[in-house]
Fold Dehydrogenase.
Amino acid sequence: MTQQPVRFAILGFGHHAIRRLLPAFPRCEQSTLSGMWRRDHAAAIANCAEYKIPHCFATREELCSSPDVDVVFITSPDAMHRDDTLLALKHGKAVLCEKPLAMSTAQAKEMNAAASASGLLFGVAQNFRYNRSLEWMRDQIAAGLIGTPQLARAEYCYPATNSARKWIIDATLAYGGPIGDVGVHCIDALRFVLGNDVISVDTLARKDASSGNLEAIASLQMEMTGDIFATVTTSARAPYRSLVEVNGNNGVMTAEGCLTVDRPVEIVVRRAGEVVERVTLDNGDGYTRMLDSFAAALRSDGDFAATGEDGLHNMRALDAAIASWRSGSRKNLRTSADS
């Protein structure tokens, strides 16, 4: 007997949902979009009609309590993630929450504790863990293709001033500037491909006339387990670019554009400057794979690649990065207080 698809509802429907999630759901085998809520209900009604979304919920509570919803996918602004997650868990719903998980490590711990106490599935939408480019790098690094990793770097630049997500420059709604918005993707990507965690962070960052209290450009130097030194660079004032690169004692692996779903990604492996392997992979199904993986995990048919605990570790790294910038000193994740 064919199983019915797991029913997702998007809480905080906006530009990201329209651009990334709506195209992903029709390609899913185990997931379907059953409803949505957004703060502007008139806009929600128009969206549901345009995109043929079955349920247009009038309130967050109505969405979270609906018998027609199995999973609440939270895509609201960062400052709302905690309350939205706790509300969904209270109503017995599994939760997939956008990154960054919260506004602080303390909030992320509270969210994880609530999910654990309820026994409900809780994940963070680090969608790039479902990019075939990152999966290939992870598998080949684990197989020893470049030897023992020593240095790693990830970069993500984008022009935030042109973004349709106007709230990302509002310090009352966004965790930070590019550190929280895309730096978290870089941190998570390095943790994923290396299988190691962040120990300490030292940050340089600067504001500009458009960024208000948030940073506009940042560079993070990170110490990771496994004796790895890593660098994350982010800019909200440059054309789109992403990069992931890992140097081992027997080669270097470089993926220009690695954190994208919009075009194929070429990964190049070099030893002593000579190309020894080159592979091109398409990440176009990354969001679909993420949704179906969460649905499978909900049915106890596999594990979801980005757990709430992953989101918590990333929050600790983000908090340490911001604290380092503000204090001008390196911050250790093991000793820094949750805030």
Summary: The chain has two domains: 6-127+288-304, 129-283+316-332. The first helix runs from residue 15 to 24. The chain has a mean pLDDT of 96.
